[in-house]
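On clarity, I found the account of how folds are encoded harder to follow than it need be. What matters is that the chain and its backbone geometry are given together, residue for residue. The format is easy to grasp once an entry is in front of the reader. For illustration, here is how one protein appears when written out as sequence plus structure tokens.
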Amino acid sequence: MPYKYPDNIPDAIKGLPAEAQKIWVTIYNSAYEQYKDNPDRESISSAVAWAKLRQAGWEQKDGKWVKVTKQKENPIMQTKNIQKEWSVDFVKVEEEMDNIEDLEQFLKTKLSTDWEKIKLSFNAYKAGELPKRVFIEVSIKNIGKDKFTSLFLKSPNQE
């Protein structure tokens, strides 16, 4: 369901600073409307809101959410930094995902019980409702970067 700041917000964001709560609610509500035909839209909207909040510079440090301030950069430097952040590992993950014939079965087998943590976002990705990069970001958030990327850094045929 859509949320209204500050009267009606989910418990999961009550620990965020007010500015971050406003951002999260705005993004969630936008995604909620965008995915209105998807039965998993609440989970997808939440995942998108968390991913975008982090992209907006919010991080959890020492148990508290803080806005990480970065020096203003010219657009060329911003592009270079984005490319740097989207490391070779991530590009390799994208490529390997495309090379796996039955990605869903592959993930179910490799992740076992962790599959449930990314199942909804995978279904949205598979249906074309979630971009691949957002699916990867959500998966990393839910099961960890090392665990998720290591699935793809080795060729599935090598195992």
